[in-house]
Amino acid sequence: MSAPHRFPATSRLLHWSMAVLILLMLFIGVGMVTAPDSYHRLVSIHRPLGVAVLVLAAIRLVNRQVRRPPPLPPAMPGLLKLAARGSHVALYALMFAVPLVGWAMLSAGAYPVVLFGGLTLPPIAPHDAHLYAALRGAHTVLALLLFATFLLHLGAALAHAVIFRDGVFQSMAGGGEGGPGYSRASRALKA
Q: Is 50 exceeded by the pLDDT of residue 180?
């Protein structure tokens, strides 16, 4: 193998930036409902970060189409490959759904989505109290699903790094030589 299979630097930067943003968003969201005194301050951070997640998800999706991810290890069982693809589809769907439902919820509640610098996004749903309530519940459920999917993704990444040691984790972490199918043994033989 002439070169390790790695995600391009742009893909890695988008991946890790979004991981931090999503975790931050989830913790701010929990803080908004558990710390009423900080609600307004946290919401003023949560809204623009939600828009940032939405924009970065769109950029990331385009980037993924332009810069295809490296292949999974050939020895990886088909069921695990299917699970990996399914979890990525779920992550992308939720990275779009959570902020869009949040924006629609705020629109239905007649709350403006104010970004940094005072820029206000237009409403994307009609003002309706019943719709607001339904979207609020949906936003919470979707955010919890995103968190669960995020944790599964993290668990799988750690399994690839610690148990399988198949280079999948290194292909996104960017550290050392590695990549799908590029095992320690093949690196040792190359040396």
A: no
Cα dist from 158 to 85, 91, 170, whole Å: 17, 17, 10
* Helix ranges restricted to H, 159-191: 168-173, 184-190
Three-state secondary-structure class, residue 113 = strand
Residue 185 lies in a domain: no
- Domain total of the chain: 1
Cα separation, 135 vs 64, whole angstroms: 29
Residue 55 belongs to what domain range?
9-69+78-153
pLDDT tens digits, one per residue of 86-144: 999 999 999 999 999 999 999 999 999 988 888 999 999 999 999 999 999 999 999 99
Residue 187 lies in a domain: no
- The burial of 9, by beta-carbon neighbours within 10 Å (0-12 exposed, 13-18 middle, 19 or more buried), is given as exposed
What is the H or E stretch that residue 41 is in?
A: helix 39-66
Sign of CA dihedral 178, 183, 187, 190: negative
Kindly state whether residue 172 falls inside one of the protein's structural domains. Answer: no
Nearest to 18 by CA among 53, 48, 42: 53
